[in-house]
UniProtKB/TrEMBL annotation, chains A, B:
<feature type="domain" description="3-hydroxyisobutyrate dehydrogenase-like NAD-binding">
    <location>
        <begin position="184"/>
        <end position="315"/>
    </location>
</feature>
<dbReference type="GO" id="GO:0016491">
    <property type="term" value="F:oxidoreductase activity"/>
</dbReference>
<feature type="domain" description="6-phosphogluconate dehydrogenase NADP-binding">
    <location>
        <begin position="7"/>
        <end position="172"/>
    </location>
</feature>
<dbReference type="InterPro" id="IPR013328">
    <property type="entry name" value="6PGD_dom2"/>
</dbReference>
<feature type="domain" description="3-hydroxyisobutyrate dehydrogenase-like NAD-binding">
    <location>
        <begin position="338"/>
        <end position="448"/>
    </location>
</feature>
<dbReference type="InterPro" id="IPR006115">
    <property type="entry name" value="6PGDH_NADP-bd"/>
</dbReference>
<protein>
    <submittedName>
        <fullName>NAD binding domain of 6-phosphogluconate dehydrogenase-domain-containing protein</fullName>
    </submittedName>
</protein>
<dbReference type="Pfam" id="PF14833">
    <property type="entry name" value="NAD_binding_11"/>
</dbReference>
<dbReference type="Pfam" id="PF03446">
    <property type="entry name" value="NAD_binding_2"/>
</dbReference>
<dbReference type="GO" id="GO:0051287">
    <property type="term" value="F:NAD binding"/>
</dbReference>
<dbReference type="InterPro" id="IPR029154">
    <property type="entry name" value="HIBADH-like_NADP-bd"/>
</dbReference>
<dbReference type="InterPro" id="IPR002204">
    <property type="entry name" value="3-OH-isobutyrate_DH-rel_CS"/>
</dbReference>
<dbReference type="InterPro" id="IPR036291">
    <property type="entry name" value="NAD(P)-bd_dom_sf"/>
</dbReference>
<dbReference type="GO" id="GO:0050661">
    <property type="term" value="F:NADP binding"/>
</dbReference>
<dbReference type="InterPro" id="IPR008927">
    <property type="entry name" value="6-PGluconate_DH-like_C_sf"/>
</dbReference>
Length: 467, 467
């Protein structure tokens, strides 16, 4: 353990705190810096109580933190913060890095930032000796503290070789993905994963908001959206984000306040990276763009610091105040089926948007699949159809026979039933109505191409984005 | 004047009141009914003070109102209200109509309601003798009271012959459109017109909300969005709805309260007709669907009875509370240019959605053009590009040489600049981001088809909807 190199850790937020304290338990000597001093006191206390014998210290500036560290992890919230820490803020780190240090940027940032702006700034600062690793993470604060994150690391081979033990210490054994393509490719991988995350987070609120308008018991419905009785198999509507956000959505509904685990500003920032990078490279992101506008509207209401699960309010606040409404769908099972269909339709479109975008930015699609299916962006729909989509893009196959999938007209019908009922109940469905229009456009395109609509939904929807 | 047939007028809301009192000044004897009795008192007072010598009376039920009327105008707010008035409410009118009466339904209702539900209900009630005219109107309460509405009338030839003098009394001389296709075609025409209305109303709020985030003076910007100095020519960003809503948007911004001229519930109802009819006939309405979700969200906040111009709040409420932001566009002229581009892009997409939908439901596109360009859905963009779109659909022309239009890549660039800046300022652009993605999809499709993007934006965007 004594042979492990000293680590500087900058940015001890919800994720960073867990990562930094986990490194202590793995025998790394960690010097921490955060702009919020009480966090540093908490870091030292945590080291004393949970990582006896570890070497924890704190620094009063980025430059002081990195002065003796051969490995530096930067886990701040945004590219702007990373740039301030390294170059433009008070006592910045770049000039103070030991010769030949390895810098791991674990924040979620645009590819263009890490590949162009940051890499160039290091050169301009005379720090070509620093090995840069682009290593965004996924998995939430619990897995951060457990050292079982998914990590998407990219950089030069020597840089990756030096960073690998530290990356392995923070990642689950099978979840350290070395992304080919050099610095920037890791951020691209994270960005494509976040297409799923940004849409599934809002979809969870949209689904439970619709459930509320339908008059369903939210606790019961929540459970039924995840698993199918009696075998307790995962239901097609299930997703990692749904399962993760449900307790907080239920708390929001019950107490009017969800505990804050991941703020609206965080997923808004990630959605903004997706849509701005998409614009930069000429790619349409119709689903994520809608989600982003809803997050922006929530920010405008002053909810930026609240948990993203609190957004269920945007959908449910009209219950009982939108005037007399009457739905046409009766029975809890049928109503829960509507909510499940809503999630399936959104997850289908978000899967297509993710795969098509990953293809557009040149990622290895098999790796995209492996990463996403096991990370926070995962869903039953993704697991079921993403491989078919990838085959179409890899081999140009236009019509995979696929007995597992329903037909596209059926998928359209199901979403149409959901949107019809939501309209009767006057429940907004930002993502659901967008997904329906995307499915409808895909159906028209598919009928044009084939004279009839034989393509599986996965293939047809994928083509709505591009080819 | 004495020879004019007696008229029953049911539904004296913002539009109906003006229409009914105008008919008095035209020498019609009008018996009015409304569910809100004070309105009837106001009707009689108005007759005394503004229509001396007219024959105005009121009735205490729909059946009493129509008992002696050979012409009946129904101007209630919704299909459900019309059905209650005629069949299912207290003292309904249908059974009491004089033999051979002419019934004009002027409410905005789904084609399926007037063509199927209402027509069938008349037959089932043994009232095949009643001549039904499907005659929705457009123009706002001032033109209603002036007798200068646009009216889209459809029905059998005998029914139209009997209704024509009354329709002419309510419409501007050149704005009575006889829509071919029988009962239901008028409602389809109104529905397609409302695609423009529903999107332009929200676009006006979205544009002024963005102007607020940009730090522009709203009064100055409002004027500049309508006309170009120094020649005072209409600017390409201008629309009927923008001009009409601006004073109320400015009042909302100044006093926190816009006077109520047209409630959110009204345009929400119309948007709902568009999207539900579109679903029924398998047509995608990506832009109107987004507008509808925003209207539903406003309803959920309890703003249903407020003027639709009050929705500028949805965009501007974040100004000053979304944290530090910094834009990259400097100077009032450039900033106003962004707002104008936002409107142009939205108006371009709403024009395409309107024309493509009208084609899908089988309307005469030349008549659609004539109606819309002079009605509340009109805009400079519509006037500039709708004819080109119509030519493509009518003649299958795929590439009209068109020196007047900018290229599609330029249109995409302009919208991209707007969405980039709005994102920096954290201003939601529900319609603008959707329009950009639709333009982007159109560009991809156009490049695929042609190897390069030579098509005019009008033609290319139109194709994003269908063929």
């Amino acid at each position: 353990m004594a042979s492990k190199p000293p680590v500087a850790f900058i940015g001890l937020g919800a994720m960073g705190f867990g990562m930094a304290t986990h490194l202590l338990t793995q025998g790394y000597a960690v010097t921490a810096f955060d702009v919020f001093p009480p966090t540093l006191d908490r870091f030292l206390q945590h080291a004393q109580s949970h990582a006896r014998g570890s070497t924890a210290s704190t620094a009063s500036s980025p430059s002081a933190a990195v002065a003796a560290a051969s490995l530096v992890v930067c886990m701040v919230a945004t590219a702007a913060q990373a740039h301030a820490v390294l170059f433009s803020g008070p006592s910045p780190a770049a000039a103070a890095l030991p010769r030949g240090a390895t810098l791991l940027l674990c924040s979620t940032v645009p590819c263009a930032y890490v590949r162009d702006t940051l890499a160039t700034a290091l050169v301009h600062a005379g720090r070509s000796d620093v090995d840069l690793v682009d290593a965004p993470v996924s998995g939430g604060s619990i897995r951060a503290a457990d050292g079982t994150l998914s990590i998407m690391a990219a950089g030069s081979d020597p840089a990756l070789a030096k960073a690998r033990p530290l990356l392995q210490a923070m990642a689950a054994p099978d979840k350290l993905y070395i992304v080919p393509g050099g610095v920037g490719a890791g951020s691209n991988m994270k960005m494509c994963h976040q297409v799923l995350a940004a849409n599934h987070i809002l979809a969870a609120s949209e689904a439970l908001g619709l459930a509320k308008h339908l008059g369903l018991d939210l606790h019961k419905t929540a459970a039924e959206l995840l698993v199918l009785a009696p075998e307790n198999k995962p239901r097609m509507s299930a997703s990692w984000m749904l399962e993760n956000r449900l307790p907080r959505i239920l708390a929001q509904d019950k107490d009017g306040k969800a505990p804050v685990a991941s703020a609206v500003t965080i997923i808004l920032k990630d959605a903004g990276i997706i849509t701005s990078e998409a614009r930069r490279c000429g790619f349409p992101t119709p689903l994520t763009s809608v989600a982003e506008q809803v997050y922006l509207a929530a920010l405008g209401r002053g909810w930026g610091a609240e948990d993203d699960a609190s957004l269920v309010r945007l959908y449910s606040e009209g219950v009982g105040r939108v005037g007399p409404v009457s739905g046409q769908v009766d029975g809890d099972e049928a109503k829960t089926g509507l909510v499940a269909s809503l999630l399936e339709g959104i997850h289908l479109c978000s899967t297509a948007e993710t795969v098509a975008f990953a293809h557009h930015v040149g990622l290895d699609l098999d790796q995209v699949y492996e990463l996403c299916v096991h990370a926070a962006g995962g869903s039953q729909v993704f697991a079921s159809v993403a491989r078919d989509m990838i085959r179409v893009l890899q081999r140009g196959a236009s019509r995979e026979p696929d007995g597992r999938q329903e037909t596209l007209p059926l998928a359209v019908d199901k979403m149409q039933t959901v949107v019809d009922e939501a309209q009767r109940l006057k429940c907004p469905l930002f993502l659901g109505s967008q997904a329906l229009n995307l499915l409808r456009l895909a159906l028209i395109k598919s009928e044009e191409a084939d004279g009839e609509a034989k393509a599986a939904p996965s293939t047809a929807v994928l083509k709505a984005w591009a080819a």
